[in-house]
Amino acid sequence: MGHIASIPRPRLELRDLQVVLAVAAAGTTAAAASTLHLSQPAVSRALLAAEERLGARLFDRSPRGLQATSAGEQLVAGATRLLAELVEIERRARAPVARPTRVRLVCECYTAYHWLPTALAELRTGLPNLDLVLAVEHTRSPVEALVAGAIDIALLTTGEVPPGELATQPLFADEIVFVVSPAHELAKKPTLTRDDLRKARLITGETPEAETRWFVTRVFGRGPRPGRAQRLPLTEAILDVARAGMGVAVLSEWMAGPHLGRGDLLVKRLSSGPLRRPWRLAWRREAEEPARVLLAALKSAAPAPMITGKR
């Protein structure tokens, strides 16, 4: 708070301003007395005392009642603004100061970071007291970080949540697709089978172990696992390898969609049907309120499917 050199000491009091405004509005001390819930003599004495303190006549008598003098008009105009401002100051002073709610958030799958910041920016506009922090250092172990209290909320795909310790709610699902070069041996097949993928070189991102287990279980079941697989850190590198005909890229539709349409890459799906990956929001119990707000925002802000066609 800044230093106040001296406290202002006006000659008039708050009661004086209220009396002057009431008299100016009513036109007589008798009518003003009714408004102020005072007696008529008390209003007359208060008005006289205000004039003496100010050192100026505020009203003149006329056949139509009390008329404000030039000094009175200036005081009425200023008092109206001053009292209205005082009421607003009191309102703000009574209102509790809302402290920012700090929420640490992480996503299990890095693909969410391509659209999540935009959703969070819109969320901050509507909830200025919500301080959202992306704790990307916990991307590979979000559930463990939640249990330990290192983060408050996690956007999960396949991580297993301990029963009873955390709250969870489903959000949406994206589709995992397979991208190949038109020159690849699988390019002419309308859909891909498990055997096709077992024989192919699969090019994936550096996904968490939980998501890798989910993918292998969903695609290959209890049968033999793929013999060849390669992990690359960048989406562009994964697609470049696929574009060169050196393997089958395994990507979320969100990541693959923007790179299709030029004819140098084709998208394939499983013959057994779309491989949909579920997304959930998980949070610690003490983060219930911001988690519910974030849940609603994410449900409406999630990107639409980017790859059209039979799904």
Automatic annotation (TrEMBL):
Pfam families: HTH_1, LysR_substrate
Highest taxon of source: Bacteria
Transport as UniProt keyword: no
UniProt keyword terms in alphabetical order: DNA-binding, Transcription, Transcription regulation
Occurrences of domain HTH lysR-type (ranges): 12-69
UniProt-listed InterPro entries: LysR_HTH_N (IPR000847), LysR_subst-bd (IPR005119), WH-like_DNA-bd_sf (IPR036388), WH_DNA-bd_sf (IPR036390)
Keyword presence, Manganese: no
Membrane-crossing residue ranges in chain numbering: none
Family: Belongs to the LysR transcriptional regulatory family.
PANTHER family linked to this entry: HTH-TYPE TRANSCRIPTIONAL REGULATOR (PTHR30126), HTH-TYPE TRANSCRIPTIONAL REGULATOR METR (PTHR30126:SF25)
Protein name: LysR family transcriptional regulator
Organism whose genome encodes this protein: Nannocystis pusilla
Taxonomic placement: Bacteria, Pseudomonadati, Myxococcota, Polyangia, Nannocystales
